[in-house]
Design goal:
This protein is α/β, with parallel strands linked by helices and 290 residues long. Helix content is 39%, strand content 17%.
Amino acid sequence: MVTTIGVTGATGKLGSLVAQRLSAAGADLRLIARSPGKQLPVPDADVRYAEYGDGQLFEAATTGVDTLLLVSAMESELRVAEHTTAIDAALAAGVRRIVYISFQGAAPEATFTFARDHWYTEQHIRQTGVEFTVLRDNNYQLHLPGLADPETGVIRGPAGTGRVAAVAHEDIAEVATAVLLDGTLLPGEVRDVTGPQALTLAEVAGILSRHTGRTITYEPESIPEAYASRAGYGAPEWMVAGWVTSYEAIATGELAAVSDTVQAITGRLPITFDRYLTDHPDILGTLSTS
């Protein structure tokens, strides 16, 4: 029997990488994107458009899909409800297995407020009785350069001397692709997916300095200072709390554990942050002097 694999977030960074790998492997593929207009990673693939929060459309989009990659929705106050709607719609459509992209340290009282959304989503998946695998990613290496102010070259936040085992999108995509293609890999398991090393933000700054040709530094903030320094952005309170607590979670050690998932599934070590910057110099943007 031909198994159709659905990939949500198909035009996003992670979804695109997974879709390309599944296509190369010859998988029967269904791309699910929020809206038309963005370039598809596999031009000739079957594609449907649906928002997570629209149960009727999402059920139609996943009809005929057997295994679904559920890439978490963009952060919002409604994210858990959107996930729940999408999961229920997918099951109503006949989806039999879900591979969910979660976040390391997901828990109801996680320091990082957005990680709480992931825990509640995981619990809903469990409660449905569907077959599942949960991949809990650490922070993305892609986002680390963006922590530094492009004008001053300073990273500021209440991370203390804590460490973060940031991971490359390519490594997550390799693991997710393997699990999607082989239902015997990690069934019913919750696995952390991290890079090969846990770095302090001072160490991140040092690596960025070498790659940009300028001095990048880390200056710890207190929690009140962090909220005050971000108050002028005009962002809603829940978003500011997410920004600040992402640093706090580093300080508490919740993002410091290094997992062996990438090596166990792919047979190679995960990509280091230094290697990632070498491979993707474009992400340095205006930080670079070259």
